[in-house]
Amino acid sequence: FNDFYKYFRYLMFNHSLKKNYMKRKRITLLFILLVLSNGYIFSQNAFKIWPSTWVGVNGSATVIISDAQFINNGTFGATGTTGTVEMRGSVTAPNSSIGGTSTTTFYNLTINKTTNDVELANNINVYGNLTLTSKGIDMKDYNIDLGSTGVLGVETDNNRIKSSGGSYGGTGTINATRNIGIGANTGIAGLGIDINAATNFGSTIIKRGHKALQGTGDCSSNYSIFRNFNIHPTTTANYGTATIKYYTGELNGHTDGALIMYQMVNSFWKGLPTTNTSPTAFATTIANGASDILITLGSSGHPLPVELISFTAACNNNTILTQWTTASEANNDFFTLEKSHDAINWFELARISGKGNSNELSVYKYSDENDGEICYYRISQTDYDGGSHYLNTIAADCPNSSVNNYFYLYPNPSNGDFIIEIIDNENSNTRIEIIDAFGQMIYFNNYDLNKGINKIQFSLSNLSLGFFYAKIFNVDKTYIKKFVIN
In this predicted model, what pLDDT tens digit does every residue of 443-454 receive, in sequence order? Predict the structure, then answer.
């Protein structure tokens, strides 16, 4: 083995031989035959696998990459291999990186460097143990997949997984697939999240990212900490208590101990009642019918270009009066008022000049025609330098008076159990939709109505608290009523 290794090492790292095509072919043949079952291979400068080449590391064998690149242009660690690759040394990337044209599948991967993280230059899989003995991995815009068996070892503030890039971090994620059943699910793949599930999530893909996520609404100039989780269960409408672990280097300017967990609900971040005791924060997520549960940590203490106090829409005969008030403005050029009938497709109504820089209360108004349907309004603010962000979205319910003669909804408010009573002049078919405050349809069904009074019982106590709309389609007319679940 020693004689073979010396010859192998000589061929691999002798630059004059690597330039010769035929001798490079000889190296490839040696690689095809190489399956290391015990002992060590030490590599410096580069450990490179050529195309159409397979390398396996089995049993207790270890490949040590010291101050070198791991370049995989062939196949490494095919199914069934159980060995270890260990990255050592002190140099910076790209001289200490894992890349190549192929996705590398490790069984065990250990990072044991004196200084500087290992960087990814392609996606990798780790189906055994990912151990961070000293320093960590910077994923940049690439991913680590632990599958259903891989486990991330203990992290510290100095030895952890991250994704750098730009002002707000790279897009790389570390992922795992696990079965999340009802009850406590702790230490999930070592990703730093525990889930006490109120529902059966089933087979669930959990993605941990390290990009600071941008706020929405009147907090769109805020950004989260450098850690987030995207939880993708088999079924929708799942929820439970999530506990997130974080590190000081991920705070992104937020105050440790004053963090709030935010969940993306209908394209807006919703703050959840949170208990934050460093280095963890936990809160109960919302079952909103979405396929993913996206959560992160942040706070509301960052200043905004415009401090918005209120944004309202009121019915006024045949018009809808929108009004918003600011407490202060900084570098504010103008506001843009937009309208939508479904909270998805928007069009611009008006542009209204801002006050530039102001520390006084400022009131803005705009009157819009009442078309008898539920409408949504949102405003954005644009700086003198062209930067803009959305401040808030509201809904206006100004139906025609004929609604009150056609159907009733009671009790209102309710705990989610209520009755819709429809008075029809003939036998007909109707469709009933339940819409939330963001315009998302959360329920629909078709009903056959008899002439006279029809009572339909609803039980929607699983919905989050707030206001909703009952929308009824009958023949060529649409009727809308607002109701509250408390």
Answer: 889 999 888 889
